[in-house]
Design a protein that fits this description.
The chain is built from 14 helices and 12 strands. It is an alpha+beta fold and 407 residues long. It has a 5-stranded mixed beta sheet, with helices on both faces. Strands 4-12-9 form a 3-stranded antiparallel beta sheet. Helix 6 packs antiparallel against helix 10, helix 10 packs across helix 12 and helix 11 crosses helix 14.
Protein backbone atom coordinates (compact mmCIF):
# COMPACT_ATOMS: atom_id res chain seq x y z
CA UNK A 1 0.00 0.00 0.00
CA UNK A 2 1.07 3.60 -0.56
CA UNK A 3 1.24 6.54 1.81
CA UNK A 4 -1.29 7.25 4.55
CA UNK A 5 -4.01 9.50 3.18
CA UNK A 6 -5.16 12.79 4.74
CA UNK A 7 -8.30 12.79 6.87
CA UNK A 8 -11.62 12.61 5.05
CA UNK A 9 -13.42 15.84 4.07
CA UNK A 10 -16.76 16.67 2.46
CA UNK A 11 -16.73 16.91 -1.34
CA UNK A 12 -15.63 20.46 -2.28
CA UNK A 13 -18.44 22.26 -4.14
CA UNK A 14 -17.72 26.00 -3.85
CA UNK A 15 -17.02 27.42 -7.32
CA UNK A 16 -15.36 30.78 -7.83
CA UNK A 17 -17.59 33.82 -8.33
CA UNK A 18 -17.82 34.87 -11.95
CA UNK A 19 -16.42 31.55 -13.24
CA UNK A 20 -19.07 28.91 -12.52
CA UNK A 21 -17.68 26.73 -15.31
CA UNK A 22 -14.49 26.17 -13.28
CA UNK A 23 -14.44 23.31 -10.72
CA UNK A 24 -13.67 24.13 -7.07
CA UNK A 25 -9.97 24.96 -6.76
CA UNK A 26 -9.68 22.52 -3.87
CA UNK A 27 -10.29 19.62 -6.26
CA UNK A 28 -7.13 20.49 -8.21
CA UNK A 29 -5.15 20.69 -4.99
CA UNK A 30 -6.44 17.28 -3.94
CA UNK A 31 -5.65 15.73 -7.33
CA UNK A 32 -2.07 17.00 -7.26
CA UNK A 33 -1.49 15.49 -3.80
CA UNK A 34 -3.34 12.22 -4.19
CA UNK A 35 -5.77 11.35 -7.03
CA UNK A 36 -7.57 8.92 -4.72
CA UNK A 37 -8.53 10.50 -1.41
CA UNK A 38 -11.00 10.10 1.45
CA UNK A 39 -14.32 11.95 1.76
CA UNK A 40 -17.37 11.90 4.03
CA UNK A 41 -20.79 10.58 3.01
CA UNK A 42 -24.24 11.03 4.47
CA UNK A 43 -25.09 8.45 7.10
CA UNK A 44 -21.84 9.15 8.93
CA UNK A 45 -19.54 6.97 6.84
CA UNK A 46 -16.38 7.67 4.86
CA UNK A 47 -15.51 6.64 1.32
CA UNK A 48 -13.41 7.66 -1.62
CA UNK A 49 -12.95 10.51 -4.10
CA UNK A 50 -11.34 10.09 -7.54
CA UNK A 51 -9.96 13.27 -9.13
CA UNK A 52 -7.55 12.11 -11.88
CA UNK A 53 -8.50 11.29 -15.45
CA UNK A 54 -6.77 7.90 -15.50
CA UNK A 55 -8.34 6.68 -12.25
CA UNK A 56 -11.76 8.01 -13.30
CA UNK A 57 -11.74 5.89 -16.45
CA UNK A 58 -10.34 2.91 -14.52
CA UNK A 59 -13.11 2.93 -11.92
CA UNK A 60 -15.90 3.69 -14.41
CA UNK A 61 -14.82 0.77 -16.61
CA UNK A 62 -14.56 -1.72 -13.74
CA UNK A 63 -17.65 -3.94 -13.41
CA UNK A 64 -16.78 -4.57 -9.77
CA UNK A 65 -18.07 -1.08 -9.00
CA UNK A 66 -21.86 -0.92 -8.91
CA UNK A 67 -23.98 1.94 -10.23
CA UNK A 68 -27.05 0.78 -8.32
CA UNK A 69 -28.60 3.64 -6.35
CA UNK A 70 -29.54 1.37 -3.42
CA UNK A 71 -25.85 1.63 -2.48
CA UNK A 72 -25.62 5.39 -2.79
CA UNK A 73 -24.92 8.00 -0.15
CA UNK A 74 -24.42 11.70 -0.87
CA UNK A 75 -20.95 13.27 -0.44
CA UNK A 76 -22.62 16.60 0.40
CA UNK A 77 -22.68 17.96 3.94
CA UNK A 78 -26.27 18.06 5.24
CA UNK A 79 -27.71 15.87 2.48
CA UNK A 80 -30.57 13.60 3.59
CA UNK A 81 -29.83 9.92 4.05
CA UNK A 82 -32.18 6.94 3.86
CA UNK A 83 -30.96 3.83 5.71
CA UNK A 84 -33.03 1.40 3.64
CA UNK A 85 -33.81 3.06 0.30
CA UNK A 86 -36.52 1.53 -1.91
CA UNK A 87 -35.38 -0.49 -4.93
CA UNK A 88 -34.64 1.37 -8.15
CA UNK A 89 -37.86 1.75 -10.18
CA UNK A 90 -37.79 -0.30 -13.40
CA UNK A 91 -36.43 1.61 -16.38
CA UNK A 92 -33.96 3.98 -14.71
CA UNK A 93 -31.00 2.27 -16.38
CA UNK A 94 -28.34 4.71 -15.16
CA UNK A 95 -28.96 3.40 -11.64
CA UNK A 96 -28.76 -0.25 -12.56
CA UNK A 97 -26.13 -2.92 -13.16
CA UNK A 98 -26.17 -5.76 -15.71
CA UNK A 99 -28.13 -7.76 -16.66
CA UNK A 100 -31.05 -5.30 -16.23
CA UNK A 101 -28.94 -2.39 -17.43
CA UNK A 102 -27.88 -4.35 -20.52
CA UNK A 103 -31.47 -5.18 -21.47
CA UNK A 104 -32.64 -1.56 -21.18
CA UNK A 105 -29.62 -0.04 -22.87
CA UNK A 106 -29.79 -2.40 -25.84
CA UNK A 107 -33.35 -1.32 -26.56
CA UNK A 108 -32.61 2.40 -26.14
CA UNK A 109 -29.46 2.26 -28.25
CA UNK A 110 -31.48 0.63 -31.01
CA UNK A 111 -33.74 3.68 -31.08
CA UNK A 112 -30.84 6.06 -31.83
CA UNK A 113 -30.40 4.83 -35.40
CA UNK A 114 -28.12 6.48 -37.97
CA UNK A 115 -31.19 7.33 -40.06
CA UNK A 116 -32.91 9.00 -37.13
CA UNK A 117 -29.79 10.99 -36.22
CA UNK A 118 -29.42 12.20 -39.84
CA UNK A 119 -33.03 13.28 -39.91
CA UNK A 120 -32.59 14.90 -36.55
CA UNK A 121 -29.68 17.07 -37.74
CA UNK A 122 -31.86 18.75 -40.36
CA UNK A 123 -34.64 19.28 -37.83
CA UNK A 124 -32.26 20.68 -35.17
CA UNK A 125 -31.02 23.18 -37.75
CA UNK A 126 -34.61 24.31 -38.37
CA UNK A 127 -35.38 24.55 -34.64
CA UNK A 128 -32.17 26.50 -33.99
CA UNK A 129 -32.90 28.94 -36.81
CA UNK A 130 -36.40 29.51 -35.43
CA UNK A 131 -34.95 30.23 -31.96
CA UNK A 132 -32.38 32.66 -33.35
CA UNK A 133 -35.02 34.41 -35.47
CA UNK A 134 -37.17 34.88 -32.38
CA UNK A 135 -34.21 36.13 -30.35
CA UNK A 136 -33.37 38.71 -32.99
CA UNK A 137 -36.87 40.18 -32.71
CA UNK A 138 -36.70 40.64 -28.94
CA UNK A 139 -36.10 44.09 -27.52
CA UNK A 140 -33.43 44.68 -24.87
CA UNK A 141 -31.32 41.99 -23.18
CA UNK A 142 -32.31 38.41 -23.97
CA UNK A 143 -32.21 35.49 -21.54
CA UNK A 144 -30.22 32.94 -23.49
CA UNK A 145 -31.31 30.09 -21.21
CA UNK A 146 -35.04 30.46 -21.87
CA UNK A 147 -34.72 31.63 -25.49
CA UNK A 148 -32.02 29.23 -26.65
CA UNK A 149 -30.29 26.83 -24.26
CA UNK A 150 -33.43 25.15 -22.87
CA UNK A 151 -35.70 25.81 -25.82
CA UNK A 152 -33.72 23.85 -28.41
CA UNK A 153 -33.33 20.57 -26.47
CA UNK A 154 -36.87 20.99 -25.13
CA UNK A 155 -38.35 20.99 -28.64
CA UNK A 156 -36.02 18.22 -29.78
CA UNK A 157 -36.91 15.87 -26.93
CA UNK A 158 -40.62 16.60 -27.39
CA UNK A 159 -40.39 15.61 -31.05
CA UNK A 160 -38.27 12.54 -30.32
CA UNK A 161 -40.90 11.40 -27.84
CA UNK A 162 -43.56 12.02 -30.47
CA UNK A 163 -45.49 14.63 -28.47
CA UNK A 164 -48.06 16.22 -30.75
CA UNK A 165 -47.93 19.93 -31.48
CA UNK A 166 -51.21 20.43 -29.60
CA UNK A 167 -49.84 18.74 -26.46
CA UNK A 168 -46.40 20.33 -26.57
CA UNK A 169 -47.35 23.42 -24.59
CA UNK A 170 -48.77 21.29 -21.78
CA UNK A 171 -45.58 19.23 -21.72
CA UNK A 172 -43.40 22.36 -21.74
CA UNK A 173 -45.41 23.94 -18.93
CA UNK A 174 -45.08 20.84 -16.75
CA UNK A 175 -41.32 20.54 -17.31
CA UNK A 176 -40.75 24.28 -16.85
CA UNK A 177 -42.73 24.20 -13.60
CA UNK A 178 -40.57 21.36 -12.29
CA UNK A 179 -37.47 23.33 -13.34
CA UNK A 180 -38.72 26.52 -11.65
CA UNK A 181 -39.36 24.69 -8.38
CA UNK A 182 -35.73 23.63 -8.36
CA UNK A 183 -34.66 27.25 -8.76
CA UNK A 184 -36.90 28.44 -5.94
CA UNK A 185 -35.65 25.66 -3.63
CA UNK A 186 -39.20 24.44 -3.17
CA UNK A 187 -39.99 21.70 -0.68
CA UNK A 188 -39.43 18.04 -1.51
CA UNK A 189 -43.21 17.57 -1.47
CA UNK A 190 -43.74 20.30 -4.10
CA UNK A 191 -40.97 18.98 -6.33
CA UNK A 192 -42.29 15.43 -6.01
CA UNK A 193 -45.77 16.60 -7.01
CA UNK A 194 -44.34 18.35 -10.08
CA UNK A 195 -42.34 15.23 -11.03
CA UNK A 196 -45.43 13.05 -10.71
CA UNK A 197 -47.30 15.44 -13.00
CA UNK A 198 -44.63 14.97 -15.67
CA UNK A 199 -44.77 11.23 -15.09
CA UNK A 200 -48.55 11.33 -15.51
CA UNK A 201 -48.09 13.07 -18.86
CA UNK A 202 -45.68 10.30 -19.92
CA UNK A 203 -48.28 7.72 -18.94
CA UNK A 204 -50.94 9.41 -21.08
CA UNK A 205 -48.47 9.63 -23.96
CA UNK A 206 -47.68 5.93 -23.68
CA UNK A 207 -51.34 4.92 -23.96
CA UNK A 208 -51.84 7.30 -26.89
CA UNK A 209 -48.85 5.78 -28.72
CA UNK A 210 -50.16 2.31 -28.03
CA UNK A 211 -53.42 3.28 -29.75
CA UNK A 212 -51.72 5.07 -32.62
CA UNK A 213 -47.93 4.59 -32.91
CA UNK A 214 -45.95 6.96 -35.10
CA UNK A 215 -42.35 7.11 -36.33
CA UNK A 216 -40.80 8.36 -33.11
CA UNK A 217 -38.58 7.02 -30.37
CA UNK A 218 -41.31 6.64 -27.76
CA UNK A 219 -43.49 4.61 -30.13
CA UNK A 220 -40.52 2.30 -30.58
CA UNK A 221 -40.43 1.73 -26.83
CA UNK A 222 -44.20 1.27 -26.57
CA UNK A 223 -44.13 -1.53 -29.13
CA UNK A 224 -41.26 -3.28 -27.33
CA UNK A 225 -41.31 -6.00 -24.66
CA UNK A 226 -41.22 -3.52 -21.74
CA UNK A 227 -43.89 -3.09 -19.09
CA UNK A 228 -45.83 0.16 -18.66
CA UNK A 229 -43.66 1.30 -15.74
CA UNK A 230 -40.49 0.53 -17.68
CA UNK A 231 -41.65 2.51 -20.71
CA UNK A 232 -42.69 5.54 -18.65
CA UNK A 233 -39.43 5.58 -16.68
CA UNK A 234 -37.33 5.15 -19.81
CA UNK A 235 -39.14 8.18 -21.21
CA UNK A 236 -38.29 10.13 -18.06
CA UNK A 237 -34.67 8.99 -18.35
CA UNK A 238 -34.53 10.34 -21.90
CA UNK A 239 -36.09 13.60 -20.74
CA UNK A 240 -33.39 14.10 -18.12
CA UNK A 241 -30.54 13.00 -20.38
CA UNK A 242 -31.79 14.95 -23.37
CA UNK A 243 -32.82 18.22 -21.73
CA UNK A 244 -30.86 19.25 -18.63
CA UNK A 245 -27.46 18.08 -19.85
CA UNK A 246 -27.74 19.81 -23.23
CA UNK A 247 -29.28 22.97 -21.73
CA UNK A 248 -26.54 23.14 -19.11
CA UNK A 249 -23.76 22.67 -21.66
CA UNK A 250 -25.22 25.29 -23.99
CA UNK A 251 -25.68 27.91 -21.26
CA UNK A 252 -22.38 27.31 -19.46
CA UNK A 253 -20.58 26.89 -22.78
CA UNK A 254 -21.79 30.24 -24.11
CA UNK A 255 -20.94 31.88 -20.78
CA UNK A 256 -17.41 30.48 -20.94
CA UNK A 257 -17.03 31.59 -24.57
CA UNK A 258 -18.16 35.12 -23.77
CA UNK A 259 -15.64 35.21 -20.92
CA UNK A 260 -13.02 34.14 -23.47
CA UNK A 261 -13.88 36.38 -26.43
CA UNK A 262 -10.96 35.15 -28.54
CA UNK A 263 -12.50 31.67 -28.44
CA UNK A 264 -15.96 33.00 -29.29
CA UNK A 265 -14.47 34.79 -32.30
CA UNK A 266 -12.86 31.53 -33.40
CA UNK A 267 -16.25 29.84 -33.19
CA UNK A 268 -17.82 32.49 -35.46
CA UNK A 269 -15.33 31.37 -38.12
CA UNK A 270 -15.63 27.60 -37.56
CA UNK A 271 -17.22 26.31 -40.73
CA UNK A 272 -15.88 22.78 -41.32
CA UNK A 273 -17.20 19.79 -39.40
CA UNK A 274 -13.86 18.95 -37.77
CA UNK A 275 -13.45 22.45 -36.30
CA UNK A 276 -17.02 22.42 -34.96
CA UNK A 277 -16.58 18.93 -33.49
CA UNK A 278 -13.37 19.95 -31.71
CA UNK A 279 -15.08 23.04 -30.30
CA UNK A 280 -18.02 21.02 -28.96
CA UNK A 281 -15.81 18.36 -27.34
CA UNK A 282 -13.74 21.08 -25.67
CA UNK A 283 -16.86 22.83 -24.35
CA UNK A 284 -18.14 19.49 -23.02
CA UNK A 285 -14.80 18.91 -21.29
CA UNK A 286 -14.57 22.44 -19.94
CA UNK A 287 -18.09 22.73 -18.50
CA UNK A 288 -18.73 19.16 -17.22
CA UNK A 289 -22.39 19.75 -16.32
CA UNK A 290 -22.62 16.42 -14.50
CA UNK A 291 -20.02 17.26 -11.84
CA UNK A 292 -19.62 13.79 -10.34
CA UNK A 293 -20.65 10.16 -10.68
CA UNK A 294 -21.20 7.59 -7.93
CA UNK A 295 -20.14 3.98 -7.65
CA UNK A 296 -20.01 1.35 -4.88
CA UNK A 297 -17.45 -1.43 -4.54
CA UNK A 298 -19.05 -4.86 -4.78
CA UNK A 299 -15.89 -6.52 -3.40
CA UNK A 300 -12.50 -5.50 -2.02
CA UNK A 301 -10.64 -3.72 -4.85
CA UNK A 302 -7.16 -2.23 -4.91
CA UNK A 303 -6.97 1.13 -6.71
CA UNK A 304 -3.83 3.22 -6.95
CA UNK A 305 -2.24 1.25 -4.13
CA UNK A 306 -5.17 1.66 -1.72
CA UNK A 307 -7.75 -0.92 -0.71
CA UNK A 308 -11.36 0.06 -1.37
CA UNK A 309 -13.44 -2.31 0.73
CA UNK A 310 -16.65 -3.97 -0.39
CA UNK A 311 -19.61 -1.69 0.30
CA UNK A 312 -17.58 1.55 0.26
CA UNK A 313 -18.75 4.44 -1.90
CA UNK A 314 -16.58 6.06 -4.58
CA UNK A 315 -17.29 9.48 -6.05
CA UNK A 316 -15.70 10.22 -9.43
CA UNK A 317 -15.27 13.95 -10.00
CA UNK A 318 -15.78 14.34 -13.73
CA UNK A 319 -15.01 18.06 -13.40
CA UNK A 320 -11.62 17.35 -11.81
CA UNK A 321 -10.80 14.52 -14.21
CA UNK A 322 -11.53 16.79 -17.18
CA UNK A 323 -9.06 19.35 -15.81
CA UNK A 324 -6.22 16.85 -15.28
CA UNK A 325 -2.97 18.18 -16.77
CA UNK A 326 -1.82 14.58 -17.13
CA UNK A 327 -4.41 14.20 -19.91
CA UNK A 328 -5.06 17.72 -21.22
CA UNK A 329 -2.37 20.39 -21.65
CA UNK A 330 -3.18 23.70 -19.90
CA UNK A 331 -6.49 22.15 -18.75
CA UNK A 332 -7.87 25.33 -17.17
CA UNK A 333 -7.63 27.17 -20.50
CA UNK A 334 -10.56 27.06 -22.92
CA UNK A 335 -9.11 26.11 -26.31
CA UNK A 336 -11.70 25.10 -28.90
CA UNK A 337 -8.96 24.11 -31.36
CA UNK A 338 -7.58 21.32 -29.15
CA UNK A 339 -8.54 17.66 -29.28
CA UNK A 340 -10.54 17.05 -26.10
CA UNK A 341 -11.53 13.51 -27.00
CA UNK A 342 -11.42 11.21 -24.03
CA UNK A 343 -13.14 13.58 -21.60
CA UNK A 344 -15.47 11.92 -19.10
CA UNK A 345 -18.38 14.36 -19.27
CA UNK A 346 -20.58 11.56 -20.63
CA UNK A 347 -19.04 9.05 -18.25
CA UNK A 348 -17.10 5.99 -19.40
CA UNK A 349 -17.67 2.26 -19.68
CA UNK A 350 -21.05 0.57 -19.92
CA UNK A 351 -22.84 3.51 -18.31
CA UNK A 352 -21.60 6.09 -20.79
CA UNK A 353 -24.56 8.36 -21.58
CA UNK A 354 -26.93 6.60 -23.98
CA UNK A 355 -28.05 9.95 -25.44
CA UNK A 356 -24.57 11.35 -26.04
CA UNK A 357 -24.89 11.29 -29.84
CA UNK A 358 -28.19 13.14 -29.58
CA UNK A 359 -26.47 15.77 -27.43
CA UNK A 360 -23.61 16.11 -29.90
CA UNK A 361 -26.01 16.66 -32.80
CA UNK A 362 -27.72 19.50 -30.94
CA UNK A 363 -24.49 21.10 -29.69
CA UNK A 364 -22.73 20.89 -33.06
CA UNK A 365 -25.63 22.75 -34.66
CA UNK A 366 -26.49 25.24 -31.92
CA UNK A 367 -23.10 26.62 -30.84
CA UNK A 368 -21.79 27.69 -34.27
CA UNK A 369 -25.22 28.88 -35.44
CA UNK A 370 -25.45 31.25 -32.46
CA UNK A 371 -21.91 32.55 -33.00
CA UNK A 372 -22.44 33.17 -36.71
CA UNK A 373 -25.78 34.91 -36.20
CA UNK A 374 -24.59 37.09 -33.29
CA UNK A 375 -20.83 37.66 -33.64
CA UNK A 376 -21.01 40.64 -31.23
CA UNK A 377 -22.85 38.69 -28.52
CA UNK A 378 -21.82 39.70 -24.99
CA UNK A 379 -23.02 39.52 -21.39
CA UNK A 380 -25.64 42.08 -20.41
CA UNK A 381 -24.74 41.85 -16.70
CA UNK A 382 -21.54 41.46 -14.70
CA UNK A 383 -20.36 37.81 -14.66
CA UNK A 384 -20.87 37.51 -10.91
CA UNK A 385 -24.55 38.49 -11.36
CA UNK A 386 -25.33 35.45 -13.50
CA UNK A 387 -27.43 33.04 -11.37
CA UNK A 388 -25.81 29.62 -11.20
CA UNK A 389 -27.67 26.33 -11.06
CA UNK A 390 -25.67 24.26 -8.60
CA UNK A 391 -27.86 21.35 -7.53
CA UNK A 392 -26.24 17.99 -7.04
CA UNK A 393 -27.65 16.38 -10.22
CA UNK A 394 -26.83 18.80 -13.04
CA UNK A 395 -24.80 21.98 -13.25
CA UNK A 396 -25.81 25.01 -15.31
CA UNK A 397 -27.30 28.50 -15.24
CA UNK A 398 -30.76 29.67 -14.29
CA UNK A 399 -30.50 32.56 -16.73
CA UNK A 400 -27.90 34.23 -18.95
CA UNK A 401 -28.74 37.83 -19.95
CA UNK A 402 -27.01 38.73 -23.22
CA UNK A 403 -27.08 41.50 -25.78
CA UNK A 404 -25.40 42.30 -29.11
CA UNK A 405 -24.91 45.13 -31.58
CA UNK A 406 -28.14 45.63 -33.48
CA UNK A 407 -28.08 46.97 -37.00
Amino acid sequence: MTEVLPDAIWLPSERSSGCPYNPPEQLSEIREKTPLSRIHYSGDVDGWLVTSHALARQVLADARFSSGSNHHRAPIDGAPFMENPPPVPPGFLSLMDPPDHTRYRRQLTGQFTVRRMRQLTDRVEEITTECLDAMEKQVGPVDLVDSFARLIPGVVIAELLGISYDDRQKFTDLVDHMHALGRSKASVEEQTKAFLAVRGFMSELMFAKREQPTDDLFSGLVTSEFTDDEIINLGLTLLGAGLDTVAGTLSLGVFALLRNPDQYELLTKATDDDAVSRAVEELLRFTAVLPFLQRCALEDIEVDGHLIKAGEMVTISTAAANRDAGKFAAPDDLDITRSARGHVTFGHGIHQCVAQQLARVELQVAFPALARRFPTLRLAVAPEEVPVRDEIAFYGLWSLPVTWDRG
